[in-house]
Design a protein that fits this description.
Elements lengths: L2 H7 L18 H29 L3 H11 L5 E3 H7 L4 H13 L3 E5 L7 E5 L1 H21 L6 H19 L4
């Protein structure tokens, strides 16, 4: 028997069992970064929503709806596409658009290309409301985000956000 064989047979000191749940927990630095992201994604929309409510009597998602429609050809977009652009469910968007209709900002109409779909159409009063709300909204976005970062850091934040969104939107989640 070789000395290596004897070493292999010698009693080994007990080893701590591998932590089978280690991957369930973030390392301290990961947790610190993640908590910063959580605070950002909860507090930034709340701050923007509060400013829009106070200054323009619009919620953030109402503003986003008007803004997306204003960028669409003929100020018109299928409700399903609008829901995707505003990150809302079709049901929630339907209630929201009904409120905006009641205020004279949008109307719904059947899609002329396929009557199974409904389009949302931005009306001139809605465009006026958007134009009235935009300066205060843009000023807050500049103050909280744009002017707070260098051009490179802002571009990096945008790229990082798109990278994460790509993972969220990936069918292989």
């Amino acid at each position: 028997m070789t000395s290596q064989d004897e070493a292999d047979r010698a009693p080994q000191p007990p080893q701590a069992p591998p932590d089978e749940h280690a991957e369930l927990w973030l390392a301290p630095a990961e947790l610190e970064s993640w908590m910063s992201v959580v605070r950002l994604i909860t507090r930034l929309p709340r701050a923007i929503d509060a400013q829009l409510q106070r200054d323009a009597d619009l919620s953030m998602v109402e503003y986003m709806t008007l803004a997306v429609l204003s960028e669409s050809p003929r100020w018109t977009l299928r409700m399903s596409a609008l829901a995707e652009h505003t990150s809302t469910s079709l049901s929630r968007l339907s209630h929201l658009v009904k409120r905006l209709e009641g205020r004279g900002y949008v109307r719904r109409e059947p899609d002329p290309e396929d009557g199974r779909f409904t389009n949302a159409v931005l009306l001139p009063a809605g465009m006026g409301k958007l134009e009235e709300a935009a300066p205060g909204h843009v000023a807050l976005v500049r103050h909280l985000v744009v002017d707070n970062l260098s051009g490179e850091r802002l571009r990096r934040l945008g790229r990082d956000a798109e990278h994460i969104l790509g993972r969220i939107d990936s069918p292989a989640r």
